[in-house]
Each structure stands twice: as C-alpha cells, then as structure tokens.
Design goal:
This protein is mainly alpha-helical and 223 residues long. It is 56% helix and 4% strand. The protein is built from ten helices and four strands; from the N terminus they run ααααββαββααααα. The protein has a two-stranded antiparallel ribbon. A hairpin with a 6-residue loop joins strand 1 and strand 2 (94-95). Helix 2 runs antiparallel to helix 3 (46-63). The longest helix is centred in the middle third of the chain and has 22 residues, at 114-135.
C-alpha cells in the first residue's frame, strides 16, 4: 500500500480557509525555516530538509493558484482528507487520513520527474526569495539585481564570501573593499540576486537565510 498523501494545508500550517495572502506569507516562513542550505551539504539533516522543502513548494504551487487549489480541495473533500493532520512516525512529516488510492501526486511538482520537480522548486523559491530581498532593499528592478545593501551584508558574512566578491569583481573592487565602500558595488554581470546567492559559499547562504528568516518571523509576530 502506498504512503498516505501529505496535507498541503498542514505543511504550511494553515487552515483550509486561508487567504492567498496568508498562503504566501506561510510559504515564506516555511521555506526559510526548512531550506536545505541552512545546514551543511554533508549534514545528516540534509535529506529530510530537502524532502520537506519539496513538500512546502508543492503545497505553495498547488494552493497559490485558484484553479489548482479548487481541484485539490475538491479531491481532498471527496476522498475524506481530514483537516487535522497526523504525524507520520517514519519521517516526522504531516500526514492526513484518507480512504482511497487517489493519485494526489498529480498535484504539486510531483506530477513530473524528480529533476523537473527540483528545477521548478528552485525557480519558485527564487522568485519569492527575490521578492523578499526587494522588500528588504537588497534587490532592485524587474530583474532583481543586487543592491549595495546586499553586497554590504554579503561582505560582512565571512572571509569565504569576501573571496567570492573579490573573484567576481577584479581590479576596482579591491579599493572599494579597502575603503569600506562596499555598498557602492554592483554585480557587473547583471545577474539576479538569487543567482548570486546560489554561488555563495554554503555557510554564507545559511547565514543569509537565517537573517532573512529572522526578519520574516519578526514581521509575522508584529502583524
């Protein structure tokens, strides 16, 4: 017998009556909390985090679109998908009661193969990540180019990040760093802030995600 399907509302810790704004905010919190890059690549937590992150993105992909959500809710209701999720002892993931073999894998990115799912998950998170950095003044424009504030924060993360910056900005950058004017630096290659983030040393990605998560959670508490 196949494993019970995951309740997307439980994954995002939301009631089935959640609004689109609530779904998007819940996705931000959940994705930042469970992102695999918050732990080292060789961490024993990595596989579980990767699985959880995929489920979070599947949930957001399904519930953030009115048509996909309507179809999912109809299937969920018809097949007695309980609104109160139980925990699966095998991996600690939220599971729900069910009474049939309905192919819930048709929802989310699970409808395709693993490589496609990972690609779409990365694109989806990247889009929301750039939105969050725009809100924090660390990205600008339609293409979400890094701002001086982003480079200032990255430059203060670690020696590894500084090495990354120097490698990407030969020549004039050295003077900017030495003169403590890193805030004036821009990505000369015109890449998005997320593409730059993906190339950072793993430890610095973890620190940046933690900083961003702290801001998002603080805003949620204050709202």
């Amino acid at each position: 017998m196949s494993s019970p399907p995951v309740d997307y509302y439980a994954v995002l810790e939301l009631p089935s009556t959640a609004t689109q704004v609530q779904i998007r905010e819940a996705y931000k919190r959940a994705a930042l909390r469970s992102h695999p890059d918050r732990v080292p690549s060789d961490s024993p937590e990595r596989p579980a985090r990767t699985k959880k992150f995929q489920q979070i993105n599947d949930a957001y992909y399904t519930l953030s679109d009115a048509t996909r959500r309507r179809d999912y809710d109809a299937a969920r209701s018809f097949h007695d998908f309980s609104s109160s999720a139980a925990m699966d002892d095998s991996d600690g993931q939220p599971q729900s009661s069910w009474k049939s073999s309905f192919p819930f894998s048709a929802f989310g990115f699970g409808a395709g193969n693993q490589a496609e799912g990972e690609h779409h998950t990365n694109e989806q998170f990247g889009s929301v990540f750039e939105e969050m950095l725009r809100e924090e003044g660390m990205a600008e424009g339609e293409q979400a180019h890094p701002t001086g504030k982003f480079w200032s924060i990255v430059g203060g993360l670690s020696g590894g990040a500084m090495g990354f910056i120097v490698a990407n900005f030969p020549g004039a950058l050295a003077g900017a760093v030495a003169g403590n004017r890193l805030g004036a630096v821009r990505d000369a290659r015109g890449r998005s802030v997320y593409s730059v983030f993906q190339e950072l040393p793993q430890g610095d990605k973890a620190r940046l995600l933690s900083q961003l998560a702290a801001k998002v959670f603080a805003q949620a508490v204050g709202s």
